[in-house]
Amino acid sequence: MTRNKPHHEKGRRRRGAGAGDSAMCADPASPNFQSEKRSRCGLNWAGSWGEMSATTRMRLLSPRNLRLLRRGPRGDFLGACSHPSSSSSLTCPPSLSSPTMCRALSSLTTSRRGLPKEKMSENGISRPKVLTLDTMNPTVRLVEYAVRGPIVQRAVELEKELSEGIEKPFAEVIKANIGDAHAMGQQPITFFRQVLALCSYPELLNDNTFPEDAKNRARWILQSCGGSSLGAYSPSQGIDSVRQDVANYIERRDGGVPCDPENIYLTTGASDGIVTMLKLLVCGQGIDRTGVMISIPQYPLYSAALAELGAVQINYYLNEENCWSMDINELQRAVNEARQHCHPRALCVINPGNPTGQVQSRQCIEDVIRFAAKERLFLMADEVYQDNVYAEGCQFHSFKKVLFEMGPEYSETVELASFHSTSKCYMGECGFRGGYMEVINMDDDVKFQLTKLVSVRLCAPVPGQALMDLVVNPPQPGDPSYNTFIKERTATLSALAEKAKLTEQILNTVPGIRCNPVQGAMYSFPRITIPEKAIKEALEKGQQPDMFYCMKMLEETGICLVPGSGFGQKEGTYHFRMTILPPIDKLKILLNKVKEFHQKFTQQYS
């Protein structure tokens, strides 16, 4: 069949095999072939994908370079990719064998002349794909999210293999990679589920099984919904009465600091609010492009969102030697260096910390607010773990409360957005996607644009809004459900505190593992010593050493952790993140397996 050439190929002259084609005609079997390909891309690929700058990644993922990496000099495929997350036929240079690079390469389907592969339709007409790696949004290729990365994908495969009766050196996969409390066995709060059940199926309001306070709350929520149904849209900013309850909660939490419900936006979890704020902040080109300061280690939502939005990620390092505290000198270093190539406009803080589990002191928060005021930075306070504080002497201080206690010089000038969620703390209701953000000192015109932006998505899930209302306005003393609520809440937080202490104690008995106190949140982020022999083998396989370590642990023990390189860490250090959420008996098994594996791994590679 005669091939219908795309418009952009018409008139293209076929290249001969002259001198100008000598590079393209290099011998694929030559040991220098890969380096010749790299040279033609105009890049030196020393180092790993995670160590490359965003600019270098964009250049590597350009359509020309992807075609060059994909194909041999005569259009032939180049062999098998070395990365376990890819099943495609291609050669991926070891320094580029990251999940992102391999998926990007394997997704690009090209013909011998580098054109989109044509697909034959039922009527015999062929046409190229409209959406290809060449034509898709290039920033999406830069997005990485380690919490659900290749190790987690392999864990899912192992679970399937176990269910099929394939023999493994372990009986089950223990997923300690993500803060999903209910998936780990934590029980929901009875009152919350009762009210949500009543709201979802109002006929149950006639059932005497449910306590009267749960019924009254369900009626009140339904009256606030369109058509008295959770299935109706709400106002885009959120149900008015729920936003008022959120404002009342913030005032109680912060000792009477006033809160205007017009500054409250109900969101699809905290993540939705964070990304929405980043969308407002990102602008400019070149040296005027927005830079956003994020902590390292960081929760990968931030780096992923900044990559997708085309913003500049400005790393500031937490002080591991001082329980992952923030250091103003480090913030100053980061912002000074960033001003050479971008316009720093925002500073993000996660408190209590994820993945590091620290709780910042009040003095630290004051210092950060002064720094933000001096450097004219918009503050973003991720406070979704505000009820998860375990260590003696530690206390959660909201950025808003500290800001207002510092007086008008700061409370009337520093711009702040703070975030909370139904997914963490004692609730653990991740799947309902409830959350809120509060904005302080936001320009009125920008606030109008923010409301417009959230209106495009209509509204946050209404069941999540209802749950948020229950979180900020739980049963009170004298209510029929109060005693059960307090008992369940206290038991959940006490168990988490016990597990935080246990995790620190057991991990610190292992030579080569050092774990800071888990002061809050739901994670530990211990530092691990990896032998040089193991580091060398990992790099030869195109993997980060801690990725190699965690993948090996998964294959040998069934324990699924996230390597520290997925969150960022100081060069030459290695970590993993594990959640403390499994039931105490299973957590003990998990920690002892980690201990045994690390000892075996160290001995094997010493």
From TrEMBL:
Region Disordered: start-end pairs: 1-37
E.C. numbers: 2.6.1.2
Aminotransferase class I/classII large domain boundaries: 226-591
Pathway: Amino-acid degradation; L-alanine degradation via transaminase pathway; pyruvate from L-alanine: step 1/1
Function: Catalyzes the reversible transamination between alanine and 2-oxoglutarate to form pyruvate and glutamate.
Family to which the UniProt record says this protein belongs: Belongs to the class-I pyridoxal-phosphate-dependent aminotransferase family. Alanine aminotransferase subfamily.
Quaternary data: Homodimer.
Name this polypeptide is given: alanine transaminase
Record organism: Mugilogobius chulae
